[in-house]
Amino acid sequence: MKFIIFPIVFILVFVLLNLYIFKRFINKLHISNRFKKYIKIFLIINLFGIIGYMFARYNPNIPNWLYFILSLPIGVVFLVFCTAVVYDLSHLAITKIPLNNKRRNFFKKGLDYSSLVVALGLTSRSVYEAKHIELETVDIKLKNLKQPYKIVQLSDIHIGGLIDQKFIKNLVDRVNTLEPDLVVITGDLVDVALKYAKPSLDELTKLKSVYGTYFIVGNHEYFHNIEEIIKVMKQLEITVLENNYSYIGEQNKGFNLAGVYDVMGYRVGHHQPDIEKALKGVDKNSPVVLLAHQPRFIEEVDDSIDLVLSGHTHGGQIYPFRILVKLVQPYIAGLYNHSKHTQIYVNKGTGFWGPPMRLGSSSEITLINIS
């Protein structure tokens, strides 16, 4: 039943957003009725694109060019809606400010045309940002660490649709040029049926590092047979941290790398995170780096953890959405001092979810130099 309810609610939300755009934005524009009609027709076609996306998301046999076209409408509506809200408030302000009719009409027309340009510009910019993965380099000091290490963090790749085998191959090539000591993948790696993701996952075996690749599950792995995903990752000789840890480096010169299941486990009743189990037996004379998909898991850790590496937030992905993410996650993107002893770094995501769009939050590969 939930698989039926979600698409219905999803589509209904976008219908309501379109109605708001029509009534509070398009209808108020000082442009010809013909042009208004063309915009409305475009948005209606765009809505059908969103419906098409709901079917395409879980059917990777659809050609990439078509998937790309069907992926865009969600982001387009969201950005136009945000523009419409700003326009609505600005339009209200203009009507309240004491101005003569000539000046009021001048400002209204300026607002109309600039709003259309902004909506188009933001959409174009967000598509551009999604195509370019930035390298973020971060230097972090850890107490009691005897020698430096280079960690490459990948997160929220979301294999499926446009995130295909070619994408992963190019990603692996870029990571290998960094010559890391180890690679960590902090969840939401798979976002499609495993049989479709397998060719892309196979590319990860080509990752090169001194101490190997480590993986923890994110919330999306719970939607696609988490047990099978873990099994396949182990078959690929990628270490899966499941409420346990590995010691990285030479004894007394390295650090403890621990990992927990995602907090989604609490909701579904299996594969639940257990920090006490994960830290059982760690070398207390060496730092502890914890992999936890969602930043809010930091509320369950104490000062025995030196550094937490997380993802999940996508940095908001499309900027206005950052405000909503902040309501449920304590940290959004970058490095933070959670307490006097514990730091957390939140990766903005190496891929994207939904529309191939990012605004004010570029995709990233993170090179973390700990010392």
Describe the structure.
With 371 residues, this protein is of the alpha/beta class. Helix content is 43%, strand content 16%. It has ten helices and twelve strands. A six-stranded mixed sheet has the order 1-12-2-3-4-5. 39% of the residues are buried.
H/E element sequence: HHHHEEHEHEHEEEHHEEHEEE
Determine Rg (CA atoms, Å): 23 Å
What is the rounded distance between the termini?
Answer: 51 Å
Shape: elongated
Helix content: 40-55%
Q: Helix/strand/pairing class, anyone?
A: alpha/beta
The description of the largest β-sheet is:
6 strands, mixed
Low-confidence spans: none
Count the E strands: 12
Average pLDDT taken over every residue: 90
Characterize this entry briefly.
By secondary structure, the protein is an alpha/beta fold. It is built from ten helices and twelve strands. α7 links the parallel β4 (213-216) and β5 (239-240).
Task: Explain the layout of strands and helices.
Elements: H1 2-24, H2 33-56, H3 64-96, H4 101-131, E1 133-140, E2 149-154, H5 165-177, E3 182-186, H6 194-203, E4 213-216, H7 226-235, E5 239-240, E6 244-248, E7 255-259, H8 264-268, H9 275-279, E8 288-291, E9 307-310, H10 321-326, E10 334-337, E11 343-346, E12 363-370
Parallel strand pairs: 1-12, 2-3, 3-4, 4-5, 7-8, 8-9, 9-11
Antiparallel strand pairs: 2-12, 6-7, 10-11
